[in-house]
## 1
Amino acid sequence: MEQLDSLGLVIKDELLRFLEKEFESSKLNLLPEKYKGGKIFSHPLIGVAQGNDPIFQKFKEVVGPEHLTPLEMWVGSGQDQLSASDLYVVSMVFPFTDKIRRESNNPIVLPRITLPAETYSVARNYGNVFKRDIMKQTINFLKEKGYNAVSGMSCDAYSVILKGKFYSTWSERYIAFAAGLGTFGLHEGLITEVGCNIRLASVVTNAPIKVSRRKSDEPYSNCLYYAKGTCKECAKKCPANAITEKGHNKTKCNKYRWKVARKMIPRLGSILKPDSRRINWKLKEDIFLVGCEFCQFGVQCTDKNPMVSDYLDFD
Ligand code: SF4
Ligand code: SF4
């Protein structure tokens, strides 16, 4: 057991160092010249959950019945059946750089709609390509070590589900929560130690990577509103009134996001890169993701866990 633990630590350290190098040197982690180049994401964080963690069953109740466990994702990606305890989920955090976060706090206010800063929309669009590349590279990194790995978003078992409820079969936010990387906010974003203005990705592997400890199983412990009844800054920032004391209204949010996309895609034109998604298990190509996320800029949890001082032990 001790031997497995130290092997798990070594793989985790090596993977983090590998990712740090990629974040530093990859050309895919750069904005286009028109937006002055510059990095999109600063540095990665990783967290690891074990495949048999009971929390994954709970996600079927909380996220939706078709949300997959790591074993279901593994088998759904064409891998052989094995014991859930032999699987590990590596969740990766991609924090936007301080520069992008600063510039994104100046939205474009038009008479009928408020749009995100162009820099942010382009960063989010380009960042997606980098994210997919990192998932692929992480899989290769683990394969070179003699293990196997699959990535949720890129496999056939991944789909966005639009059936009354709107969710996906593999929620990166919930996976990151399981891997101890943060907890949810009033805006339903994940508040990590480097804030909520992040992107997330994950891979499932049979490499015995050291599991991360969740500081709390309480899903909203990093949010000032849920912990202390204060803040609510994200609610004030949302132009769609999709955030209230009752929480985040996904329907209102998505409606506004579509409106943003309809304006932003022609505005940015051919500079955008296409992506694809399975929606109700049908592959939809040429999707241009441009984001929204006013609720994440210039708020107390943009770039940090605002509850961190409350956790400090002064004894
Ligand atoms: S802005 Fe404040 S209320 Fe909203 S999620 Fe962040 S900490 Fe919570
Ligand atoms: S993503 Fe946009 S519409 Fe949705 S809650 Fe945040 S600010 Fe509001």
## 2
Amino acid sequence: MKWTLFLFIFILVSCAQLGLRGPAGKTPERHIVFDIDWTIVSEIKNPTPVILKNPRVIDVHGSYYFVNEGLEEFMADILSHPEIRISFYSGGKAVRNQELLSKIKLKNGKSLLEISYKVLGSDELVLVEALPGARFAERFKKDLTKISKDLDQLIMLDDTMNFVVDSSDNQNEHVFFIGKAFEYFENFKDAEGMSGEYIPHTYDEWFLNRKKLNVLNAVFKEAYAESVESGISFSEAMKKREVMLNLNDNEWNSYVSSYYKKFQNIKIPKTPGAEMECRHIAKLLMGR
Ligand SMILES: [Mg+2]
């Protein structure tokens, strides 16, 4: 009887280990970390009745947020790669973050909270030395090693520059700056005539703000394929595209336009042969 029990436990442990390694055992675990405010959602300060009827607007403890276009599709594309973990790292409070993420649902019915690897909030920010009167993001920093120690395989998308600790592991090299985000306007005409740092001044600026996650989705697909194919680190593959896009300018330069076109044209099938097809498409795109 004892031996039977021992054998049962042995098989159970062996299977669990196999499960952990899984079919992607040779593939390193990769991480994508999303900032929340102005990266995946845009807060709406004074929502009109029309805006409140928009199914993409969610109410989180009395604050209203527009769920940025293309978010669910982006998440689904990332999740088609089982070795990639999605986390969220925000300066917001934990309860707010969790409530917000629980209200954004993917097509499979799961919420972003359910599919997340880690959700870090204000409690996980690091207080650093700063001059008196310094802004929030100068006094508090995100520490990416709280998500994973292997930063080569980690990238965080954030609309705030230099929001990570200044450490010897050079965490800024693992942040993809997505450019300044504008306030939410249902249509560009609603912003016309207004002034302010976060008001889009042209239709193109408004449109890019609206389609940014689509562009980043295409960037991710290509960078992921290159990382798998060439062996360069995932963060390096992403960062070299950040430079080309230069999203800080809020301009549809040729790289931004081409990634948006790729997003519209490429649909990577989520079948067993998807990875091979993905590489093939990436080869075509890179002219190899
Ligand atoms: Mg932000």
